[in-house]
TrEMBL record:
Molecular function per GO: 2-oxoglutarate-dependent dioxygenase activity; iron ion binding
Taxonomy, superkingdom: Bacteria
Cofactor requirement: Fe(2+)
Lineage: Bacteria, Pseudomonadati, Bacteroidota, Cytophagia, Cytophagales
Protein keywords: Dioxygenase, Oxidoreductase
Annotated source species: Algoriphagus faecimaris
InterPro entries named among the record's database cross-references: Phytyl_CoA_dOase-like (IPR008775)
Protein name: Phytanoyl-CoA dioxygenase (PhyH)
Amino acid sequence: MKDLADFHYPISDLFPQPKSASDWDQYRLSKEQIEFFHEKGYLAGIKLLDDVQIEALKNALDEVMDPKHPLHHLFHEFHSNESGDPNKVLFHSLGHWRIAEAFHDVIWNPTFRMVASQLLGDRPVRFWHDQLFCKPAHHGGNVAWHQDYSYWTRTIEMQHLTCWCGLDDATEDNGCLQYVPGSHRWGLLEKPALAGEMDGLMQMMTEEQKANFKPVAIPLKAGYAAFHHPLLVHGSFANYSDRSRKAFVLNVFADGTISNTDESLLEGVPVIPKGKKMEGKFFPLIFDPKEI
């Protein structure tokens, strides 16, 4: 049993890799897609996974959700229910890429890597951390309105990106993502409790921001992803439907991001002193467009 963070390359054949520069072209975004991202703060409907890959990741999810997994100690965080309310269950974890081959290798998904680089301005991309968000049927909890970077100020400059991908179909009924278009231009707001009340962030907004708070639901079929800016306000409502809503998240930043703290950046990760570059075992370089 190994810590898969030691391997900075795919270790299975689940995600075939391009073999030439021309092979990468099929994964490139259009100019219109990139412009939409910069205007709205998000880009949705990107197909990341086929049926075989979805099944492999769902099987891996079932394995890593078990608190008795022999590599459980490798998680940076593990919350069987982050809300604390048994009627609003939100499974949330960080670090499963260290444990399961499928979650390790999805980081090297060619579509994900190319899109991430383009949305970060065609820059080299480093892995930041992964997350799982699972809402069971009938009593799945919400994720409060928030901005991702409000939890990440221990890393600077702000040149981060989030990719959310469903392993189940995500609909308004089972608690799909909700984005507030244009809110990535509001500046950094205070951070709420992630599984807290939905209106927590609203109390920290200006009257102008409240007037422009117009969420848009982002339903996605399983295997499809949405990418969003680190300041985009987003959240998701509870799942009272008869279908689960399982999803994984990949967070990245542009190469050159540095530590902004002398404390551990993630539980179990050795300290990277303040002002030093984020790199090494836990923050691998996953894509460099100059190497295509």
